[in-house]
Amino acid sequence: MCIPIICFVGRSNSGKTTLIERLIPELVQAGYRVATIKHAGHGFELDTEGKDSWRHKRAGASSVIVVSKGSLALFSDVPDEIKVEELRDRFLDQHIDLVIAEGWKSEGYPKIVVIRDQVGEVPVSPEGLLAVVSDKPMDLGVPLIDPDDLASLTALITRHFPKRA
Hints:
single chain, 6-stranded parallel beta sheet, globular
């Protein structure tokens, strides 16, 4: 059985990361093992200049894995676009109950839209839309959840994605 994926989408600085950060402990308290995958549309640099892993990657290694007691990090070349389910299937522990992906707004995954200012601030595929998180009144035909109502958001997610046996 595949690990379910739910995407949180919205424009930059709409509060997606903060919401996810506040939601994770609620899901963990409900017994879920959660993984997150973030889509950085403008690229990113995680490795620190001068560190061994940075030096290996700069030297031309396609992939670099750093392991310490209890932790693992992977720096790897990937195609221009990689699907979130490919990341899930390739890299995640199969004991995970739910993947929370930040991004992938145009894909057909179940999604929650985070709106700070107004509807339409970011184009989103209506396919799979589960809810809108906003403190602005609006009716998009799905539940509207206030950003501070973590109990309702957690209940919606646990209803749609029951914990795996």
